[in-house]
Amino acid sequence: MPHDEWDWTPPPADPDRPAQVRRILRLFHPYRGRLALVGLLVAASSLVTVASPFMLREVLDVAIPHGRTGLLSLLALGMIAAAVVNSAFGVLQTLISTTVGQRVMHDLRAAVYGRLQSMPLSFFTRTRTGEVQSRIANDIGGMQATVTSTATSLVSNLTSVIATIVAMVALDWRLTVVSLLLMPLFVWISHRVGDERKKITAQRQRQMAVMAAMVTESLSVSGILLGRTMGRSDSLTKAFSVESERLVGLEVRASMAGRWRMASIGIVMAALPAVIYWAAGIALQAGGPAISLGTLVAFVSLQQGLFRPTVSLLSTGVQMQTSVALFQRIFEYLDLPREITEPEKPMRLERIRGEVRFENVSFSYDQSSAALTGIDLAIPAGGSLAVVGPTGSGKSTLSYLVPRLYDVSGGRVLLDGVDVRDLDFDTLSRAVGVVAQETYLFHASVADNLRFAKPDATDEEIQAAARAAQIHDHIAALPDGYDTLVGERGYRFSGGEKQRLAIARTILRDPPVLILDEATSALDTRTEHAVQKAIDALSAGRTTITIAHRLSTVRDADQIIVLDKGRIAERGTHRKLVAGNGHYAALVRRDTHLTARV
């Protein structure tokens, strides 16, 4: 599906890797106490692990050859105890590290969601919903293994490797040198594999985001209706299949990237015991110092013990490099600039009268053209303003400046004499209510949808709001009443019923300032009449800004303005503007003609 032009695309970045790693490590800073405890457990576990080969050497060189049964029993019990203690330490490590990892993932999810909640409306108009969902679900979900176990695995394996090497040196430094000759090569190979997987992971996550967006758009109720009525179901399925096929290739590449190179490390590490035996034999034949059987077996045991944490450590390094790509995608969202923020010392209005003023307001979505220019308006508390004009003249944009869905580019919008940019968000949300043309309802019960406006509302308050919105009788007649599920986006209800539910929700919120953004433009005449009665009940005593499509709904407004190309072309009452025979009169004649044809 050719939707790429709709995507929000972050600016290209080539972040400094050490800085990126430091930022990732800062995520774990609040849990440093628990991680310190994990470190202690890891250190203790490593000491217990390397003690077993030394006890094995004593068994082979002392206890068995000299028939010391008591020492043999003690050493055997010690080796069993070491295994038990090591297992117990491992369980505790897993519990603590998993808890810390899940808390870090929770912090990331909450931080990304909170940042997105603070983004301006323009961000969501240019970003596909599936892309946003993919960042939260797929990208953060893909980091689960990293944040829950990788950190502990890194510390555990690194400690084990260091402790094992120290023990190997203590047993025989010459055999230790032989064992470690190839280690730099292994590190270089794992680094190359990590870089390769990081690139593939970034491509895979982008592809998953594309697929998530396709699913969100095409498998919604609206998407299914559009696809079937347009006869495009098969083409949508084929398009999804193509994208899924691309993901198959990326998944295979991600799985196989560097697999043979990492396997070669395993082969070499597995062959090292034979090399150790060979080296010990050659040294003995060449007249070098003899190595006891116990020392040799203990050394090989340590060397084999070194194999697992070393390979795991190299794999962890690869995994961390891969995860950097996921962290980078999350950090892109966390680094999005907040265009609309509260001031450092926000003002709070306890009693809101509802006076709204626009003082020389201008606004533009980008630098190329202005959506609004030179807007001066005054709406007294309890007064009504109607905004009319052709499509694209800036009507909705004007109304969205009051609740700060956008911020002005120039001038000021005042609420009770205070610039809305100086008010706290709570004051604005209490002050301004919006009823839009497209009503959004959650997939929840009618009561839950209404309580979204006032979580502590009683059943009586909900029913009173529904009565005022002319929708109570319809709800009460449903089999489940207010417990009826509205369906996705309210598809169980008609357009007029959804609008009245939205009005009831706003009545429950009880805002002093009301914005009606073409709330009846998509309704038939009979339904519009019922909704208009609900709007009249809602508007009573409130400052009302009505974005009008049908001019018959705004005849009684205290003030009407006509917008044309972002400027106020005319203003006045209905009677005055009709008598002026200008833009408004032309719109009235067109509206009358269209109504007569219907």
TrEMBL record:
PROSITE patterns named among the record's database cross-references: ABC_TM1F, ABC_TRANSPORTER_1, ABC_TRANSPORTER_2
SUPFAM superfamilies reported in the protein's UniProt record: ABC transporter transmembrane region (SSF90123), P-loop containing nucleoside triphosphate hydrolases (SSF52540)
ABC transmembrane type-1 domain mapped to chain residues: 36-322
Keywords: ATP-binding, Cell inner membrane, Cell membrane, Membrane, Nucleotide-binding, Transmembrane, Transmembrane helix, Transport
GO molecular function: ABC-type oligopeptide transporter activity; ATP binding; ATP hydrolysis activity
Residues in ABC transporter domain copies: 356-590
TM spans (from-to): 35-54, 74-96, 161-189, 262-280
Compartments where located: Cell inner membrane
Mode of membrane association: Multi-pass membrane protein
One GO-annotated biological process of the protein: oligopeptide export from mitochondrion
Matches recorded under InterPro entries: AAA+_ATPase, ABC1_TM_dom, ABC1_TM_sf, ABC_transporter-like_ATP-bd, ABC_transporter-like_CS, P-loop_NTPase, Type_1_exporter
GO cellular component: plasma membrane
PANTHER family the UniProt entry points to: ABC TRANSPORTER B FAMILY MEMBER 28, ATP-DEPENDENT PERMEASE MDL1, MITOCHONDRIAL
Family note: Belongs to the ABC transporter superfamily. Siderophore-Fe(3+) uptake transporter (SIUT) (TC 3.A.1.21) family.
Stated name of the protein: ATP-binding cassette subfamily B protein
Taxonomic placement: Bacteria, Bacillati, Actinomycetota, Actinomycetes, Kitasatosporales
